[in-house]
Amino acid sequence: MSKPFTEEDLSNIFDIDLIWRRKELSDLKTTVKAADDFSRPVLLKAIVALSYSHWEGYVRTCATKYFEHLTVRRKPYLDFERQIYINSFLIRLDALYKTRIGLNERCKLVTDILDGSNSRFSYINPDLIDTKSNLNTDVVCDICTICGIDSSYFQNKKTFIDVILLKRRNAIAHGQQENIQLNDLDEFVSEVLSLMSYFRNLLENKAYTKAYLA
Over the stretch 162-207, which tens digit does the pLDDT of each residue have? Predict the structure, then answer.
């Protein structure tokens, strides 16, 4: 993928990545509907697993490319909204919480926080966009916080994300029996694509309006 230097570049990257994902789901959906009664249950499981993989992959791609778009601005942290600066310390704070870091390291962290805002934003730690191979509502809301976008839409979709999509996918991934109805197929795929598109739109709108600036 090319670098998202402009808002149009970013939008094109989002488009290209969504097109092939949507096509795969559409093609598999067509195959499911045309399948015989013996093959259809297996294919229905496959489309649940594929739908989840595209949901997780698209969120990660969009968030990663959004931050790449910001880093090529070559601006200091002071020019961005505060969340961008906060992000740069979250991994170190997490390590501080998990381990017995000495006083000198703690003092250094505080000093870096106080003195670092004039430095240039040039990197986003990929661990901050960790979908944890389990992109439930809590995880996507955390990623929304990192990106500085509103997560209420996904909170309102909690039942679909956590139960209808993720719980089914996990059951299938762990070899458990899962009964999926053909009648639910169109609505299920449409809902997954809506989640993906909504996340993309939040980031795209923020980029075009430059709402990421201080």
Answer: 999 999 999 999 888 878 899 999 999 999 999 999 999 999 999 9
For 186, other C-beta atoms within 10 Å of its C-beta total: 11
> 121, 136, 151: which is the final residue of a domain?
121
Number of domains in the chain: 2
Whether residue 2 is contained in a domain is answered as: no
Return the DSSP state at 192. H
Predicted model pTM: 0.93
| Contact predicate 171/164, CB 8 Å | no
Cβ contact 157:116 at 8 Å: no
The first and second tokens of residue 190, run together, are: 């449409």
CB 145 within 8 A of CB 87: no
Q: Nearest Cα to 68, choosing from 140, 27, 145, 124?
A: 124
